[in-house]
Specification:
The chain is α/β, with parallel strands linked by helices and about 160 residues long. Helices cover about 45% and strands about 20% of the residues.
Amino acid sequence: MLSGETASGKYPVEALQTMAQIAVAAENDIDYWKRFGKNTMDHTTTITDAISHASCQTAADLEASAILAATQSGYTARMISRYRPGCTVVALTPEERVRRQLNIAWGVAPALTDEVSSTDELFSMCVENAKQGDLVHIGDTVVITAGVPIGKSGSTNLIKAQVVK
């Protein structure tokens, strides 16, 4: 939209700053919680799709501060992101490559984590990493998505809601 002004205009920096301010204001004006109700699933093709949709609905119902998505490949975090939940999606992955890829997903804050071996460890690790990253605080409600067996890509099959302690 600004190629002519930024390439050859008198005020390229000011033009870009104005456009950025407009974009930020427009993005902040959208009520994503309200919009989510209109963005229902057209179809459920996989368990991961259903869990992603349900985690967004649960987060909206509970007015959760964040959705914590344990993910090997990043697929679950991207599926959650497509529903534009009204809270941050914290994607927790042991894969550096996946963490980097998720940096461009809408509303996703990716974090690198250690491998774990049990669901209890996984839930605890998700919450602790989100707290350390200052993404959630004590007393916040969060929705956690993960899969069993742990560490297997494409196994997202559970949701847990809890208050951060």
